[in-house]
Design brief:
The structure is a single chain. The chain has 65 residues and is mostly helical. It has a single domain, classed as Protein Yjbj, Chain: A, CATH 1.10.1470. Helices cover 77% and strands 0% of the residues. It has five helices and no strands. Helix 4 crosses helix 5. The N and C termini lie close together (7 Å). Belongs to the UPF0337 (CsbD) family. It comes from Neisseria montereyensis. Pfam families: CsbD. This is CsbD family protein.
Amino acid sequence: MNWDQIEGKWDQFVGKAKEKWGKLTDDDWKVAEGKRDQLVGKIQERYGYTKEQAEKELDDWTNNN
């Protein structure tokens, strides 16, 4: 799924993604609100990942779901 599709189906994406990134709060999801860089930052913050790790995990997950 490309990021334009994710932005268009944000609520559906969040529903699935909450299972993957359970440490993200509802407020985190609202802040990200379809913005990839914001979501990467929140994943980084909550999981202690580097930016590269967070981007790779997000890309891997979105490409497989």
